[in-house]
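Journal club prep — side note

Before the paper discussion, L.F. wants everyone to see what a predicted structure for a comparable chain looks like in token form. Sequence:
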Amino acid sequence: MLERTVVLRRTDDHVRAPLDEWLVMMDIDAGKYYLLDGVAAFVWERLAAPTAVSDLVAALCSRYDITAARCEADVLPFLTQLHEKGLVQQA
């Protein structure tokens, strides 16, 4: 699992388009698509530039009513999944 000190940025190898409050992404090479809800789409947009996980957690906490500990517990597994799928990389 990724740690809170790591700096991540998204990869731009995927076709993406907004769909209401969702974000649809497609990995053409792998033939897979992903549907991100509003919170995940917010995370994706923040990762357009290199961002420390701790800064991302702070941004989520200021936007949503959530504690830093709970946010980190929720976002680290999600970021790890994105990393394993090649959607984000360490900056």
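L.F.'s comment for the group: The chain has a mean pLDDT of 94. Keep this in mind when we get to the figures.
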